[in-house]
Amino acid sequence: MKPKIDFEKISSGYLKLKKKQRYGIFAALNLIIIGCFVAFSLYPKYESINNLKREVSELEEKVNQAKVKAARLKQFEKEYAEAQEKLKKLSKVLPESSEVPELLKLVNRLGEECGLKFYVFAPENPADKGDYFELPVNIEVRGGFHNVAKFLSKITQTDRLVVTENINIMPQYQPSLSVTARFKASTYWLKEQKSEEKKP
């Protein structure tokens, strides 16, 4: 049987704490949340993307060599098809630019589902990062602390790559136990690769 959490008792004890102690608790929770997101969301996704891109590049090179030498063509075509399948999975993580507005709508909907009120939702200009574009979005929401934590967890668990950073959570005393969270959520999309025209 799961132990029941007495939120009223926790709330009463929290409100009895001194102002410095309450800010200290929120500062510690900020560090825990940021540390967890960096360790379990940001780094694994970046590593997975880089590994998939390397595999696709290596397999495409093998396919080109097979076509030139006309040897083991069927086997390499099979490997190429597998690489293309992996590339499709990669495209779900890094969408095309035309899909970005839908992704932004998804982030907004997830916040509302978590019972949060948006005060700021301001996309910045896309930044050219070489092989891909980055679109940072400045977000400010207000609601219960566990609602904010749930929202941050949901947006980093979507199929698309969404990275949260500069998370700042501040307590609000009206209503009691609510918080204001300010952070930047960034999404990405790959640049279109122009295929070289074959010489006659």
Q: What's the gyration radius in Å? A: 23 Å
Q: What's the CATH architecture name of the largest domain? A: 2-Layer Sandwich
Please give the domain count: 2
Tell me the total number of β-strands: 5
What is the percent of helical residues?
Answer: 40-55%
**Which structural class matches the secondary elements?**
alpha+beta
In terms of DSSP E residues, the strand content is 15-25%
- Tally of individual helices: 5
CATH class (first level) name of the largest domain: Alpha Beta
Oligomer: single chain
- Characterize the biggest β-sheet: 5 strands, antiparallel
Shape: elongated
Find the CATH topology of the largest domain: Alpha-Beta Plaits
CATH superfamily name of the largest domain? Ribosomal protein S6/Translation elongation factor EF1B
- pLDDT averaged residue by residue: 74
Give the helices and strands as they follow along the chain: HHHHEEEHEE
Question: Descriptors for this entry?
Answer:
2 domains, Alpha-Beta Plaits, 200 residues, alpha+beta, disordered C terminus
Structural account:
The chain is built from five helices and five strands. Strands 1, 2, 3, 4 and 5 form a five-stranded antiparallel beta sheet that branches. The model is unreliable at about 195-200 (pLDDT under 50). It folds into two domains: about 5-95; about 100-190, Alpha-Beta Plaits. It is an alpha+beta fold. The longest helix is centred in the first third of the chain and has 51 residues, at about 20-70.
